[in-house]
Amino acid sequence: MIVFDLKCASGHIFEGWFGSGEDFDSQKESGLLLCPICDSHDVIKAVMAPAVPAKSNQLPEIRPAVRSEIMTTQQAEPSLPPALANMPQEKLAELMQGLAQAQAKALKDSEWVGNKFADQARAMHYGEEDHRAIHGEVDAQEARDLLEEGVEVVPLLFPVAPPGSRN
User: pTM for the complete prediction?
Assistant: First the structure.
C-alpha cells in the first residue's frame, strides 16, 4: 500500500491509500477519485513529506517544513484533520488504539533493517532480493526518492523503537 496526500481544485487536502502509483493513475483516469469535502473529481497528488521516525537514541531533527505541518508554534496543540477535530475524545482514543494495534500486528512479522531500509527496499523492488515485510529508518528525502522510483513504502503512524533499544 502507498499513501498519497491528495488535493482538489478547491484546495482541500486529504489522504488516499492505493495499491501502487499506477493504481492512483488508473483511478484518476477512470474518474473514481473524489474530494470528500466538496465532491470534486479534479484531484491531484499534493506535495507531501513522509512521516519517517527518528532513531530512538537521537533527538529528532526538526525541519521547518515538517514542523509547520505538525504545529504552527511551539506552544500550539497538534492539529487534527477536520474529520477528526470534532470527534469525541473517547472515540478518537479508541480509533488511535485500533491504529496502534494494527501497526503492531503488521510489524510483528516484519524484519527490522534499521538504516539499511532504503537499500533493502530497492533491492526487493528491482528483484535483487526476495520480497518480505521490512521496516526501518530513512530520512524524508530518501523516502521521497523511494516513492518517486515506484518503491511501495508506507510511513508508520507511530514511532517504533529498534529491537534491543528499549529498557
Answer: 0.48
